[in-house]
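hi! just following up on the protien thing from before. the input was this:
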Amino acid sequence: MNPLVRPPRLAPGARVAVVAPSGPVPEERLQAGLDIVRGWDLDPVVAPHVLGRHSELGYLAGADAQRAADLQNAWCDPSVAAVLCARGGYGAQRMVDLLDWAAMRAAGPKVLAGFSDITVLHQAFATRLGLVTLYGPAAAGVDFLKNARAQEHLRATLFAPESVRIVTAVPPGGTALVPGRARGVTLGGCLSLLASDIGTPHAPAGARGGLLLMEDVGESPYRLDRYLTQLLRTGWLDGVAGIVLGSWEGCGPYEELRAVLADRLEGLRVPVVEEFGFGHGPGALTMPFGVPAELDVDAATLTFDEPALR
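and the predicted 3d structure came back as:
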């Protein structure tokens, strides 16, 4: 895997757009998130359909074309320095094919931040735009609103990325499933989305040579087994350099989940670290995708060769 283009870091006063490519956003959570972003001396602008809801499918924040237009218009607005996703949920897969990638490429590099269902966009931005993106808390996400660590790590990554070039697992996590060290370019996201995105025009061909970051929420151990088996059977994990596992909120007793992870991943014979502290868990860390890094499982660190943003 090759390193991707790093967007510019943010400066005080920068204008940022808040979009909802997937699920609907409660207004009170949106307003609370905007207050935090304004407290960072940023100027947030809310896309037209962030508080919208699909007329028939209530799990979507407006129609597919509306959500796609919000994202594309925000990205192509020269006054916008970053696009922050308000939440995950479901729906990015339905709108990603409606984006005009030529127009978005012409707009130049800027920051995309979000997680969970936004995995689909992280993969598309990597393959279509060749850009580093930030897998981190959603601007109206419950954890982001309530947890100072999640807020501070995202803020540091946006404004002073050199200060978080070394990311250490959140205690008591960071244990070794398979010890060792590995180097590669980071990629990944929510496991269920990685599996469902295989074979689409926007998914990378595989994780060969990369450091794969994976997490999920609300999935039973047997379903996670299914997703991992899908990645294995398609060859998507062939040649992966190392694996960093995040949070598994609501995924059953961890001892059962750990047995699945060990059964499916140990055969790859690459370093694997557990419970690193990104994803759906409390105080989630922000993880850059598309940057070369070194994983040291024994030290529970991920050291990026350069800051995520330039």
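The first strand starts at residue 15 and ends at 19.
The chain has two domains: 15-162, 166-304.
cheers
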